[in-house]
Amino acid sequence: MRSVAGQVFLLQSVIMVLFAAAAGGALVVQARESSTQEARQLSKGVAQSFARAPGTLDAMKSGDPTELLQPRAEDARKNTGVDYVVTFDPQGFRWTHPDPKLIGKHIYAVREGGAADRPFTKTFEGSLGLAVDTTVPVYDTNGITIVGFVSVGVTVASVDDVVMDQLPQLLGFAGGALAVAAGGTALVSWRLRRQTRGLDPSEMTRMYEHHDAVLHAVREGVLIVGSDGRLLLANDEARRLLNLPADAEERRFTDLGLEAGTAELLGAGRPATDVVHLAGDRLLAVNVRPVDPDDHTAGSVATLRDTTELRALAGRAEVARERLGLLYEAGVRIGTTLDVVRTAQELAEVAVPRFADTATVDLLDPILRGAVSAGPGPQMRRVAVHGVDGARSLYPVGELIRFVPSSPAAVGAERGRAVLDVDLTAPGGWMSAQDPERARRVLDLGFHSLITVPLQARGVVLGMASFWRSTGPPFGREDLAFAEELAARAAVAVDNARRFTREHTLAESLQRSLLPGSLPDHAAVEVAHRYLPALEGVGGDWFDVIPLPGARVALVVGDVVGHGLHAAATMGRLRTAVHNFSALDLPPDELLGHLDELVARMDSDENGERDHESVAGATCLYAVYDPASGMCCLSRSGHPEPALVHPDGTVEYLRVPGSPPLGLGGAEPFETAEVSLSEGSRLVFYTDGLVEDRERGIDTGLEALRHALAGARRSPEETCQDVLDALLPARSSDDIALLVARTRLLDPSRVAEWEVPGDPAVVAGIRADVTGRLRVWGLEELAFTTELIVSELVTNAIRYGIGPIRLRVLRDGDSLICEVADGSSTSPHLRRAAITDEGGRGLFLVARFARRWGTRYMARGKVIWTEQSTRSPEAEPEEVSADALLEQWEDAAW
Q1: pTM of the predicted structure, to 2 decimals
Q2: Main subcellular localization, coarse class (predicted)?
Q3: How far apart are CA 382 and CA 363, in angstroms?
């Protein structure tokens, strides 16, 4: 084992033994895991199949489950190859077992480690060895009550047989590989002895030392060239002078990328003595001699000496060329995004390693927020660090740095000029202007030269860029000028990013201030919402939930196409207009019609006053939900169709008739769709930014939304989060607004309705019925005022309205709502009554004792409604003076 071949053979033997041991261990582990996995799958499949098999549920609910289940369990055990199929009741008493003696016995620790309402699989070591047991609950037809459990166990197969079958193959493979390694070692040893011509190791060592000295120690280039013009050997100096590639040996000089004259001189093999030749930017003295003067096929030896006296000048020219290229690269790479931090990082990445070993960028805090700095200050925040061997800096990214007043950064920011420190270790210079502890740490990192340049644009200092060197020559005056030029270009990009950040922040603040901060709690729906602005800029997406009379609620989502302040401001105007139109209690189609006219007028006014982007492209979806009837009326203008998630978890997109976007001046009227919603249904309103982007079509997005919404028993908040987790793109190019509303129905016991005949004589009976209903609701204190309101509204409907006439009273939270509907489209209004008028003051009494009142028009007729508070008793009529009542307002004609 003293020879190299013997040592290699020993190493190979050890590797093969370790490989065989590792392979054997892996084989054992793999066999055990495979057997266990097969047992888990088999037990789980049999347990679920038996639990869901027809007749299992009926047998468990029968009077004698054992009689029905025991034969089936034994058949299943024998046919599937499992070890046991056991069924037991929720209290843990067995109905079936392979051993009849254990039937009726209690099972202990059946569900240890698992929940009783879900299938559970566990592995344990029993009398038969390693086994896997799966327990599956059987639910009643209601899907809630657990009737019993099915437990199936499978014993894991032994891995010894598998290992013994494959172990001979493994050992045979290892022995064969070892034999091949031994043969290869012997062959290599024989070839080495042949190629070294039987030289003694000491002679080989001496020859290698001489060869190594020529290759690495000699400061003169040496080349050995074959008779066919191929390079056989080149030392380090020759490689440096000619800039040869690493694989230059055995290649012709014409293939090495050398100039034609240089390749001809060195590869031709003709003798030469001190021939001065220009190779690239170097002047070389070349000597060429044949290896054997008597044998021209032996090749030649060439020596090279660098004799140029213009080396320094050529170096400066090369540096200038690289600096010009670096400035061009900086113009291309810096400012690719409108992000302040990313622009600073690009500056540091451009400067390293071609100009400095490490670059740091510090910015004033107001610049990061997009604000304008009042001037250079002593504190800046580090936003970028980049170095050739990592981020070598004392201060990490994100830390707020307070500079010493005499430091280069503070002096440069104050004067607005770059500061050069050629030698950081020189006494009385940079060392004395720094905090001693920090200066020592910086020097410990190996930095010896520094340039600090203020980043200023439009006469304002934005921050500082520092360039550090730890290797190579120190910075000079030429480097100072280049650093200033590089920082000036970067400062313009940083300022552009700052201005964009400021505008983006203003637009986002404006939009968030115009969006609802929180949605009102409403008895009709449970709502959740999300709004995510686009990364490129805020847009005009918005949503709202507006309470309406009669316990109803309006759900609205809109989108103004475009980004920036104009889109956000337009969105605020549209949201305010929707609130105003909703106060008139208009149907969805009429509301969108008024909104369309408003957008067209806004667009016309803006284009007439100045050259401004139009509002065309605004969309809206408006829905009104009535919890008393469960009906939802929807209308849309250019907006995606809403999704409806039924209580059972199925999803459909509501076919709401579509209309062009708002403001396009379409002649066709808006249409509505009515749908009856079950309690617990979820209405999902969204904008197109959720389902469509540059990489995903709208059809693909809608299908992905359908899958994300599918599933029952999820709250609106959970639904919103699941949708965003599934569909939110990495970089959103458009705003996203999402509104999820889960519907509720009013308890029928809280709604009372009466058909009113057209005879004034029935008013007294109607009042009595209403009083009785208030007594059932525990609202006796509102009986007097409610009788007065109902009496006035019903009487006026009989006198001035058109049949059919209906009265409906609802109790919604802390409100009592009275509604009188008739077939007339005329609406009452208040006016001043004369002193001599005998009547006409009923509507004033209604307005006086109701918290709110109003009129709602339907397809045929209208509804006069009032709303009273149930929190405190209303004022009694006798508490108001008669003169005050007589001098107030009266009804107009109906």
Answers
A1: 0.52
A2: membrane
A3: 6
